[in-house]
């Protein structure tokens, strides 16, 4: 049932703005990676729009992307990007030197921006997963010209829509706007989850705080006990129970020539010696345009940036640890270490 009296308090509007700031910040990072330029999607402005009064002409020459949530959230939201912005992004992806024209978008534009939005909203849902503390997944975004959005709003019988306006910039080439439209029911679900999470965290903190008492320092006394002791006795007990505090010493990672066991012989590392770390072997990278990715078929060969025989990179905990040669051991691939690069940043990632 649609709530015809739907409103948002100032706190709820701020909550929606913060949620969208988090998700669109991640989306901007994804787009920045794709086009290799600095991208910002910031300064969300939240307001309510009547569904019956919605006019798609307000977003003339724009593209809409419907994002449907499959897990973690219920509903959809609609991302609106201006048509010239879409053409500019596609031109950057295709390394085109020509100025985008004013003509209508073709299938290549819609396909390319669909893949871009898939990457952006995938990153946004990952950011929301971290924010809410549970997995959030989306379906493949549906891209269409904004004129069809009015039909969807009528079909869904939406009485109220929440519109969020963002400042959208691409380094040196674009200063524009980016919009998100959300049905009121979806918005209420978002706000409810945030406020419930905050309430549960506060309740848990109070509950644990009531159950746990701070441990008394060694040699400390209750007030009634202290009244029965002399000042000299208190001083003696205090001196007797003082703790000898020494500064924590961590081992140095500078000397790579020492044996590995010597580097980590400090007692400070005893507690983390059994922590598993993921080892990744990278044989190379490749950079392709979106249109080239869309044209990949079974049997195609992707050329990497390393020549045959070059050592592969061994990544531990996100840091380059070593290099080595690929070998085969009992029908399994392995890596023979040929060079230790650095252990300095191993535990900083």
Description of the structure:
Helix content is 35%, strand content 25%. The protein is α+β, with helices and mostly antiparallel strands. The protein folds into two domains: 10-199, CheC-like (Chemotaxis protein chec); 259-284 and 305-349, Roll (Surface presentation of antigens (SPOA)), CATH 2.30.330.10. Strands 1, 2, 3, 4, 5, 6 and 7 form a seven-stranded antiparallel β-sheet that branches. A four-stranded antiparallel β-sheet has the order 8-9-10-11, with no helix packed on it. It starts with 9 loop residues before the first helix and ends in a 9-residue tail after the last strand.
How many DSSP-defined strands?
11
User: Helicity level, as a percent range?
Assistant: 25-40%
Shape: globular
Give the helix tally.
Answer: 9
Q: At the first level of CATH, what is the class of the largest domain?
A: Alpha Beta
The H-level CATH homologous superfamily of the largest domain, spelled out, is CheC-like
Strand content: 15-25%
Structural class: alpha+beta
| CATH-derived topology of the largest domain | Chemotaxis protein chec
Give the C-alpha Rg.
Answer: 29 Å
The CATH architecture of the largest domain is: 3-Layer(aba) Sandwich
